[in-house]
Amino acid sequence: MAGHGTSNYQPKNKVVRWVDSRLPIFSLMNEQAIVFPTPKNLNYLWTFGAILSFMLATMMISGIVLAMHYAANTELAFDRVEHIMRDVNFGWLIRYIHAVGASMFFFAVYMHIARGLYYGSYKAPREILWMLGVVILILMMATGFMGYVLPWGQMSFWGATVITNLFSAIPLVGPSIVEWLWGGFAVDNATLNRFFSLHYLLPFVIAGVVVLHIWALHEVGNNNPTGVSVKSSKDTVPFHPYLTMKDFFALVCFMVLYAYFVFYIPNYLGHPDNYIEADPLVTPAHIVPEWYLLPFYAMLRAIPSKLGGVVVMFSSLLILFVVPWLDTSKVRSAKYRPMFKIAFWVFVISCIALGWLGSQPAEGVYVMLARFFTFYYFAFFLILMPLLGIIETPKPVPNSIAESVLARHHGSTATVGSGEGRPDAAPAAPKKD
Using CA atoms, how far apart are residues 253 and 108, in angstroms rounded to an integer? Predict the structure, then answer.
């Protein structure tokens, strides 16, 4: 699947052939991006990988341009953002591309993760691929949080104050961590400088991990909606033009949504208090992070203990690393797991509900609901995943990807595979007419 072995690619252009004989970069591109064998039944949920690559490049380019006009100084930061918006040629567009892009980036990554959970893309042999994806998510969250501080509005300042203070709950080393993050004894100029430096640096780290993520993907190959491993060339098609055109169409559709937010409602997903300059003496009525961090913020506030809330919030991310070993089912795809499918969609509803609850005051019924959905979040991974793999009876799994495609095309029902979707499942015997 990974395309190991000697390449038969022979460039026609003399210059390209000369370069490729000394540095086989064109052969590598042909092998990994043109003829790379890809399951023929991939749906549009698999296009979010290309969308995320596009968004990472967009965020890095727009961020570099913005950094040319920004000043990481508490006396200047707020005014410099206004300068970008009003005085820099197309500065308003670049800033909105970057600000809205953060939301679009997280929307795409959450869809990418949900697809992986639904279709079992974390199962062997893709454990390292999955864990690298979790690392990317955590780095994105850190980068997004630090970027939220840079405009130095009210929500920027108080969000930084509240979130960084959480580390003080860690026994022994907590206060030292907070002091290091602040660069002093309060959120001030040193804090803004540190956050700007890290916000600028981390996207390059993310890009490096993305390279590893893609490398791991090309070693083990794509998963697919059936969860059945590739068994022959009949199960695959070349990446180009079949998948490149699919990715391109999905990217165009995604960019229409992206452009709608940028040009018509650029501040819809932001908070109006961030257009008020940071004031340490005036506390906003309700301090909230950006929407993509709200589910974790709701978990934090659902626990009455400060240390307990911090542990739960970070555990909600760290638990994703061990998902490949928590799921005991031999069937990858939820398409053939009726009980798991129900549990998964309740999990999605819980995540959405936690996002809404994170935007509400931490009082009364909101706290009780946050506790309930937080419990289900962890129960999905720690109880339902191991248990359903034992008690659930899966639906019949096709013997091969080609069989599932033909069955769907002819409207017939797929038959049970010899290994119920395992990577070592034997190919089906050819049928006689």
Answer: 13
Domain that holds residue 190: 28-296
Asked if residue 241 has a cis previous peptide bond (ω within 30° of 0), the answer is yes
Does some domain include residue 348?
no
- Burial of 256 (C-beta count, 10 Å sphere; 0-12/13-18/19+): exposed
Which DSSP letter does residue 35 get? S
Asked whether residue 109 is domain-assigned, the answer is yes
Query: Would you state the pLDDT for residue 407?
Result: 80
Binding site per annotation, positions for a ubiquinone: 218
Determine contact, residues 153/274, Cβ cutoff 8 Å: yes
How many H helices and E strands in the chain?
A: 17, 2
Does residue 287 form part of some domain? yes
Residue pLDDT, tens place only, 302-322: 999 999 999 999 999 999 999
pLDDT tens by residue, 76-112: 999 999 999 999 999 999 999 999 999 999 999 999 9
> CA 408 to CA 62: how far, in whole Å?
43
Question: How far apart (Å, rounded) are the C-alpha atoms in residues 229 and 401?
Answer: 8
Largest CA distance in the chain: 82
pLDDT of residue 140: 98
Residues annotated in a binding site for heme b: 98, 112, 199, 213
Annotation: binding site? 98, 112, 199, 213, 218
- Is residue 225 included in any domain, yes or no? yes
Q: Domain count of the chain?
A: 1
| pTM attached to this predicted model | 0.92
Structure tokens at 127: 């454990």
Neighbouring residues of 429: CB distance < 8 A, sequence distance ≥ 6: none
What CATH code is carried by the domain that includes residue 173? 1.20.810.10
DSSP state of 184: S
Say which residues have a Cβ less than 8 Å from residue 388's Cβ, sequence separation at least 6.
328, 329, 337, 339, 340, 343
